[in-house]
């Protein structure tokens, strides 16, 4: 998908206090992004946010990065994440529309007896380490869960806007089911749970990758030899712990580092690939596009509209 130039709009930066006064501390909202002055780069103090792209496409600014998003994708943001969605131009010609659900953990206190795993699920998502796939994939929930979230949120507004406590309970139960379904999918995939011990080989591999990510001579063969382990064995352990392969982890780590460098000095974009361990610009470019959804040039253009990421 080719995105056009982003609009030159100055965004505010704010921390939004926990919602709300309604009986179930859950807030549902819809945004069509026709009024760009209403967009802010924000976090929800003490709240999770579930966001579903229901129409069009645009950008997702998340924790200092910028990513392309399109209809049907769903994202789960923990209470410490700063983000905003943004259309491709001031006219919102792509008709970007987002359904949001923001909720506090105590929204489900009363349901503890009905859903005994609820507290465990919330702790899981709020306590995921940085190397967890939920963060490595920029909080994207995956196609299976995105379709489930899209269908569920789209049908909740008629209950949310009602005045009866029973209707708020419908919303409460539906959101709880989404969180439990997300927890089930991530757990079934073997992804690392908060507080669970990693296999020592995976820990050693991660330490080695983080210490040598910018070394152009670093390869998976070098990693396997360093650990005295076979490729298949390490890949199996890596997938069980993190849901991805060692080479995918390394490429994502390098691109994340490249994004940080580009934000500090966009003028170095054509030469930055050697600083993050790539020997060929073409390889760097393909990985950059696959990870961010942008070409390097379009990424710089997108960053130009927003200068408050590191303020």
Task: Provide tags for this entry.
alpha+beta; four-stranded antiparallel sheet; 9 strands; flat
Overview of this protein structure:
The protein is an alpha+beta fold. The protein contains eleven helices and nine strands. The protein has helices at residues 118-126, 133-136, 143-154, 157-160, 165-188, 200-212, 220-227, 231-242, 246-264, 281-292, 296-304; strands at 12-16, 26-31, 40-44, 47-55, 57-62, 65-70, 74-77, 83-86, 97-104. Helix 1 crosses helix 5 (165-188) and helix 3 packs antiparallel against helix 5 (165-188). The two termini are 31 Å apart.
Please write out the topology.
Elements: E1 12-16, E2 26-31, E3 40-44, E4 47-55, E5 57-62, E6 65-70, E7 74-77, E8 83-86, E9 97-104, H1 118-126, H2 133-136, H3 143-154, H4 157-160, H5 165-188, H6 200-212, H7 220-227, H8 231-242, H9 246-264, H10 281-292, H11 296-304
Parallel strand pairs: 1-3
Antiparallel strand pairs: 2-9, 4-7, 4-9, 5-6, 5-8
Helix pairs in contact: 1-5, 3-5
- Taking the alpha carbons of the first and last residues, their distance comes to 31 Å
Mean pLDDT: 75
How are the strands ordered across the major sheet? 2-9-4-7
- Taken from the alpha-carbon principal axes, the silhouette is flat
The total beta strand count reads 9
> What sequence of helices (H) and strands (E) makes up the elements?
EEEEEEEEEHHHHHHHHHHH
Structural class assignment: alpha+beta
Low-confidence stretches: 1-9, 191-195, 305-311
How many helices does DSSP assign? 11
**Mind describing the biggest β-sheet?**
4 strands, antiparallel
Rg from Cα: 20 Å
Strand content: 15-25%
Q: What percent of the residues sit in helical stretches (DSSP H or I)?
A: 40-55%
């Amino acid at each position: 998908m080719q995105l056009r130039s982003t609009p030159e709009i100055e965004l505010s930066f704010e921390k939004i206090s926990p919602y709300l006064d309604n009986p179930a501390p859950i807030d549902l909202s819809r945004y069509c992004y026709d009024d760009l002055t209403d967009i802010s780069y924000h976090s929800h103090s003490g709240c999770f946010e579930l966001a579903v792209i229901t129409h069009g496409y645009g950008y997702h600014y998340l924790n200092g990065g910028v990513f392309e998003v399109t209809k049907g994708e769903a994202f789960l943001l923990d209470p410490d994440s700063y983000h905003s969605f943004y259309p491709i131009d001031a006219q919102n010609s792509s008709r970007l529309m987002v359904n949001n659900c923001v909720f506090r953990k105590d929204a489900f206190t009363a349901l503890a007896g009905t859903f005994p795993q609820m507290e465990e699920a919330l702790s899981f998502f709020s306590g995921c380490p940085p190397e967890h796939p939920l963060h490595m994939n920029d909080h994207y929930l995956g196609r299976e869960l995105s379709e489930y979230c899209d269908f569920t949120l789209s049908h909740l507004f008629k209950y949310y806007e009602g005045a009866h406590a029973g209707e708020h309970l419908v919303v409460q139960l539906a959101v709880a089911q989404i969180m439990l379904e997300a927890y089930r999918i991530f757990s079934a995939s073997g992804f690392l749970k908060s507080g669970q011990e990693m296999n020592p080989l995976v820990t050693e591999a991660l330490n080695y990758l983080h210490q040598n990510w910018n070394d152009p001579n670093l390869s998976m063969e070098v990693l396997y030899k360093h650990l005295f382990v076979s490729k298949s064995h390490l890949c199996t352990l890596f997938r069980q712990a993190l849901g991805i392969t060692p080479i995918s982890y390394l490429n994502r780590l390098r691109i994340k580092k490249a994004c940080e460098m580009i934000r500090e000095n966009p003028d170095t974009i054509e030469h930055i690939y050697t600083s993050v361990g790539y020997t060929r610009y073409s390889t760097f470019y393909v990985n950059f596009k696959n990870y961010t959804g942008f070409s390097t040039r379009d990424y710089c253009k997108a960053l130009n509209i927003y200068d408050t990421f590191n303020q």
